[in-house]
């Protein structure tokens, strides 16, 4: 009974975000993490299997309205339980080298505290539950510039201090 109620709620949510008549950009990307050597054909690379084991899953959704307002949703399963992760949208696609994803995507470019924050960047920090699942949502009034947002990087710590534990290539869409 509980499962049936949950399923109907999920179907309603999918219908609301997946409507063909909705203006703007709607994107959903799903991946299964693998270490770099095994991920030549995967979009999801783990660099730290203690935090993001092989076989963990990630789903990223983007919805950008015609006025530019953008929502990014993150869902992960199979990561280390009870851990606080830092997550940001980065500029480039993932690679075998954790540095391949480049810097954070920013609405207005700058390296000071006035630019490196969750308002000017897309932060999706989350704490995994006892089963290793987690989710986060970020909402902004601005849209991505075309081709300048290419991945979601999962870090070992929240905020900006953690090392890169995993990366998921997501070709974020620009406002049409
Ligand atoms: Cu980051």
Structure characterization notes:
With 176 residues, the chain is mainly β. It has a single domain (25-169), classed as Superoxide dismutase, copper/zinc binding domain (Immunoglobulin-like), CATH 2.60.40. Helices cover 9% and strands 31% of the residues. It is built from one helix and nine strands, in the order αβββββββββ. The strands form two sheets. It has a five-stranded antiparallel β-sheet, with no helix packed on it. It has a four-stranded antiparallel β-sheet with strand order 1-3-4-7, with no helix packed on it. A hairpin with an 8-residue loop joins strand 8 (151-155) and strand 9 (164-169). The protein starts with a helix and ends in a 7-residue tail after the last strand. The model is unreliable at 1-21 (pLDDT under 50). The chain binds copper (II) ion (CU). The site of copper (II) ion has 5 residues, from strand 5 and strand 8.
Structural class: mainly beta
Number of helices: 1
What is the count of structural domains? 1
The CATH homologous superfamily is termed Superoxide dismutase, copper/zinc binding domain
Q: Report the end-to-end length measured between terminal Cα atoms.
A: 41 Å
Report the bound ligands by name, code or SMILES: copper (II) ion
> Which CATH first-tier class would you pick?
Mainly Beta
CATH architecture: Sandwich
**Main β-sheet, in a few words?**
5 strands, antiparallel
Instruction: Please give the order of strands in the largest beta sheet.
Output: 2-9-8-5-6
List the uncertain runs.
1-21
Strand content: 25-35%
Overall geometry: globular
Keywords: Signal
GO molecular function: metal ion binding
InterPro entries: SOD-like_Cu/Zn_dom_sf
Family: Belongs to the Cu-Zn superoxide dismutase family.
